[in-house]
Amino acid sequence: MKSPIFAANWKMHHGPSDATTFMRSFLAHSPRRSDRTVLIFPPALSVAAVVASLHERQDVLVGVQNIHWEDKGAFTGEVSAGIARDAGARVALVGHSERRHVFGETDEETALKCAAAARAGLTPMLCVGELLSEREAGETAAVVLRQLHAGLSRLEPGQLTSLAIAYEPVWAIGTGKTATPDDAATVHAVLRKALRELAGERGAKVPILYGGSVNRGNVSELLAARDVDGVLVGGASLDATGWSAIVGS
Ligand code: PEP
Q1: Contact of 168 with 127, CB cutoff 8 Å
Q2: Which residues line ligand 1 (CB under 6 A)?
């Protein structure tokens, strides 16, 4: 994936019909660019609609917001990495803060999911981020490093370079509060150092995205921060015109 990466997390918004309408408008406003990566995480049932709308725009990638860690079996309601890949997804979000804090996903589950994604040929995008109480206690670096090491612990050495990380402070997601570019750069530097220690210079090239109340007004300054290779955008990615403006920043 070429940096900067602009990733849209639609969460539980835009069913197949809305997704098709969104994509028509978004593509009309966003010419193909070779200097960036655009990635969309629709709800699982809308992946096929988004993929279908991209038949002439292979420059835009599609991902899933979550996967199960088993390859197949009696797991009613779940989607495997292989099924997501077959539907056209290329990337899997793992450990988004809503998965961790609303659904109780553990570090060990994020490790299993990253491994399942890599096995199926999906790029895992592991999300890490601290709670406000953890930031106030001075624990930010320790928390994100714990989540990073745990989440990547089941990947083979050769898989450690085919991934992406999203730093998303929990207190900034959907709240309108954004980390300052300096705050983001500080945490990204911690993550970059850890990735270099894990996988050498190729590990240091793993893209690290920032997420948390990114919008048209703040995207440029966040992308200009050191070690910020892209943005993961929730609320501000739901409107096609607004998302086009962000992607064109
Ligand atoms: C997200 O869902 O990953 C996110 C960052 O949301 P928002 O942009 O709405 O804070």
Answers
A1: yes
A2: 9, 11, 168, 173-174, 211-214, 232-236
Ligand 1: distance of its center to the CA of 71 in Å? 28
| pLDDT values of the chain reduced to their tens digit, one per residue, 249 residues | 889 999 999 999 999 999 999 999 999 999 999 999 999 999 999 999 999 999 889 899 999 999 999 999 999 999 999 999 999 999 999 999 999 999 999 999 999 999 999 999 999 999 999 999 999 999 999 999 999 999 999 999 999 999 999 999 999 998 988 999 999 999 999 999 999 999 999 999 999 999 999 999 999 999 999 999 999 999 999 999 999 999 998
Closest residue by Cα to residue 165 from 120, 129, 134, 131: 129
Whole-number Å distance, alpha carbon 189 to ligand 1 midpoint, is: 21
Could you tell me the distance, in angstroms and rounded to a whole number, from the CA of residue 169 to the centre of ligand 1?
A: 10
Q: Which of 96, 168, 177, when mutated, tests ligand 1's pocket best, judged by the most ligand atoms within 8 Å of its CB?
A: 168
Quick one: residue 26, left, alpha or beta (phi over 0 = left, psi -120 to 50 = alpha)? alpha
Specify the amino acid at residue 227: D
The whole model's pTM is what? 0.97
